[in-house]
């Protein structure tokens, strides 16, 4: 896999092709697969565990 293939998985590089991004893993850019999985989780599966017992 080359750098162009890797960068294509990160939405930020679509509008900032020459961006060089240094940060910690805590706030690093996420690949689109992770963003999609988190979106699904927050839309369809998120609940406050332990507050009550009921189905979504």
UniProtKB/TrEMBL annotation:
<dbReference type="Pfam" id="PF00266">
    <property type="entry name" value="Aminotran_5"/>
</dbReference>
<keyword id="KW-0808">Transferase</keyword>
<dbReference type="InterPro" id="IPR000192">
    <property type="entry name" value="Aminotrans_V_dom"/>
</dbReference>
<feature type="domain" description="Aminotransferase class V">
    <location>
        <begin position="20"/>
        <end position="54"/>
    </location>
</feature>
<dbReference type="InterPro" id="IPR015422">
    <property type="entry name" value="PyrdxlP-dep_Trfase_small"/>
</dbReference>
<keyword id="KW-0032">Aminotransferase</keyword>
<dbReference type="InterPro" id="IPR015424">
    <property type="entry name" value="PyrdxlP-dep_Trfase"/>
</dbReference>
<dbReference type="GO" id="GO:0008483">
    <property type="term" value="F:transaminase activity"/>
</dbReference>
<keyword id="KW-0663">Pyridoxal phosphate</keyword>
<protein>
    <submittedName>
        <fullName>Aminotransferase class V-fold PLP-dependent enzyme</fullName>
    </submittedName>
</protein>
<dbReference type="InterPro" id="IPR015421">
    <property type="entry name" value="PyrdxlP-dep_Trfase_major"/>
</dbReference>
């Amino acid at each position: 896999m080359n750098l162009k293939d890797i960068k294509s998985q990160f939405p930020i590089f679509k509008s900032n092709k020459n961006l060089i991004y240094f940060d910690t893993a805590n706030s690093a850019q996420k690949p689109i697969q992770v963003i999609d999985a988190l979106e699904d989780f927050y839309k369809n599966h998120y609940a406050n565990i332990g507050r009550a017992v009921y189905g979504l």
